[in-house]
Specification:
By secondary structure, this protein is an alpha+beta fold. The chain is built from 3 helices and 5 strands, in the order αβββαββα. The chain binds adenosine monophosphate and zinc ion.
């Protein structure tokens, strides 16, 4: 737990997020600057900087969860595919220093935008979350 970490704050429920899923190890919520509708994040409950710091037994659970949430997101937003992305380290584009995995539903073949998307329409995010949750 880090006091200055925004994802720890989300993990503890001190900063709001539009949650899709949670269990003992992970929380999933919608990205606030989505690059596509249904862009979600999976974070560890515990604070780990990036993939090398995450225990293997936690990492082993992450991909099955990403698979499940990606399937729900693809159905929920009517996408045709998805990207799973983990940025590790500032040089690799990691902006938040708390391990997270991006699930990005895709509808076209345009290049994957590696920068943040624009700010989400906060009135619409809860409906997107419900569309995904309904397909879990
Ligand atoms: P990364 O570049 O891999 O570190 O990605 C961090 C992601 O976290 C970006 O896509 C941001 O839009 C997203 N993000 C940052 N703060 C929040 C927040 N409070 N709620 C939801 N997503 C966030
Ligand atoms: Zn943290």
């Amino acid at each position: 737990m880090s006091d200055t970490c925004i994802f720890c704050e989300i993990s503890k429920g001190r900063i709001p997020s539009i949650r899709i899923y949670e269990d003992a190890d992970f929380i999933s919520f919608l990205d606030i600057n989505p690059v596509a509708r249904g862009h979600l994040l999976i974070i560890t409950r515990e604070h780990y900087l990036s993939t090398p710091e995450v225990p293997d037994e936690i990492l082993a659970k992450a991909l099955p969860l990403a698979k499940r949430l990606a399937a729900a997101a693809v159905l929920g937003v009517g996408a045709d595919g998805f990207n799973i992305l983990i940025n590790n380290g500032e040089k690799a584009g990691q902006a938040v220093g708390h391990w997270h995995l991006h699930v990005i539903p895709r509808k076209d073949r345009s290049e994957l935008p590696l920068r943040e998307g624009g700010p989400a329409d906060l009135t619409k995010l809860p409906f997107t979350a419900a569309d995904i949750r309904n397909n879990l």
